[in-house]
Amino acid sequence: MAKTILLAHGSGGKLSHDLIENNLVPPFSNPILNKLDDSAIFELSGRLAFTTDSYVVSPIFFPGGDIGRLAVYGTVNDLAMCGATPFYLSISLIIEEGFPMEELKIIVNSIKEAAERAKVKIVTGDTKVVNRGSADKLFINSSGLGLISSGVNISGSNAHPGDKLILSGTIGDHGIAVMSQREGLKFSSSIESDCAPLHELVTEMLEVSQKIHCLRDPTRGGLATILNELAKQSNVGIWIEEDKIPITNPVRAACELLGFDPLYVANEGKLVAVVAPEDTEAVLNKIKQNQFGVNASIFGEVREEPKGKVIMKMTLGASRLVDMLTGELLPRIC
Amino acid sequence: MAKTILLAHGSGGKLSHDLIENNLVPPFSNPILNKLDDSAIFELSGRLAFTTDSYVVSPIFFPGGDIGRLAVYGTVNDLAMCGATPFYLSISLIIEEGFPMEELKIIVNSIKEAAERAKVKIVTGDTKVVNRGSADKLFINSSGLGLISSGVNISGSNAHPGDKLILSGTIGDHGIAVMSQREGLKFSSSIESDCAPLHELVTEMLEVSQKIHCLRDPTRGGLATILNELAKQSNVGIWIEEDKIPITNPVRAACELLGFDPLYVANEGKLVAVVAPEDTEAVLNKIKQNQFGVNASIFGEVREEPKGKVIMKMTLGASRLVDMLTGELLPRIC
What we know:
Chain A is about 30% helix and about 25% strand. With about 325 residues, chain A is of the alpha+beta class. In chain A, the strands form 3 sheets. In chain A, strands 8-10-7-11-9-12-13 form a 7-stranded mixed sheet. A 4-stranded mixed sheet of chain A has the order 1-6-4-5. At the A-B interface, helix 1, strand 1, helix 3, strand 4 and strand 5 of A face helix 1, strand 1, helix 3, strand 4 and strand 5 of B. Strand 1 of chain A pairs antiparallel with strand 1 (about 40-55) of chain B, so a sheet runs across the interface.
């Protein structure tokens, strides 16, 4: 067997079939995928959530994860942020000619483990190979399909004045982990990506409250950006408190050293929930019982004004406007 | 506005939002997409078909189409080949830093026109930007969702001995069109890609026959490869006749000149149908009435033996084994 990916692995012909049948189908084996027709076919009925994301993270291996795990959990989380239970995922690979077969196997195994952990099935896929220099190692697209229970109505446009904001844990871990790996930086304590599947946490939250109005995971653009999205979509003001935002000392130190504002650094296993005030404590307590929510905190609230804006009360008492990320802090973070 | 794509257009922050809200949502505007939540949400019930494909064609503009049109029709056709009516598509862009904004607009418009022509809605999307040299201009993933009517049971594993094979038109047009554009070749008559949506044709075929057993579009790897796939999946022998396979004179001449076997050259708007013998004429006549099927032909049949193989009776009388594509004829053809 070839030790690296050849152009012919993307030809659609014999080598493509060998790669698919030997390396790409067996790890994910299930009756829907195994049919190998042009589409996956299954019965599914109700209110569906459908999402897509392409992953171009560099480097593809980083502390706490790799591009494969990210591709599964990232898409699972996009479904979870609409209150959907994820069911089916597609995986589409764009591979650079010369990519080591051993690394592909590691990443495929990582996709397999993440899909098992998240209880989703990989049901369809695609593999393209581009000539050397036309892509950087490996890009992965995963699209996902989930089902939303009746009664659940979560949207970025549902925040109401009076609602409280809960953050499920510390910020900045993913961005700093990837960046430190990329730049070869060593911090005294290792910082790992928080890459994690959040749909079970969301299910538990929905068990204790029917008044979760918005959910969003602060990935690219960080916490500041998604708060701005919510403020704009719901046409409300969002007020947050700096000292209620959980952050680890190593991430804080790394951000200070590098001149990054942690509000703009990417996360992969955190969520922000906007919840009616009467349910906030119950939801917070439920989040704290989940392994991905032990550091959860109520960190802000929704007001009428200033519409479409985010205001942060700083630790020393002053308040400042928190804008959406402008420019680019860390390219290819996810 | 920037004249080229900047890294910050993929940051998730302000420039990403500007690009999405000004350039990527308005052309596809529909109530599901416009919500801009992490997933598209809609009601859909029944037997679903779900498929994904990444498009890496080079060059991105070619006679008869571009990467945008290809991304819509290719995914629509993967749904149609399972007998599904396509409903919803996702579009995920991986753009190289420096890509001209004008070209992006042309391709987005091409996606819009193709989606309208195919009567599908773009309901969710994603945009990533990678640094210069880390991708070649633009890659597009599109995933699709369709609905299969009850009673339709089409699969590559359903071919039965006695079934006839119908090809909906001439072969090799797409591959030769892309290749000639890539290499700057000029043929006396211009050869255009056959890139086209085939789901309406499939619907019309299903109106006249409940005995369409397999459908497949001979894209990467060409006609020879998909016939081998069908022979293997159904564990049957497939016998075809060389002089029944439609091909235009310019494509035949280009293949002779370049040393290509047209059986292995990619198509984008053709299908092979495996149909029970008693329904073959009715299906053929129906295909010929569709604009994408005027040159349709019955070109072969299914036999018990040789299992998993494809045999072609040549124009001069001898027969030869037709293998799956080995190696790579034309990289990045789709």
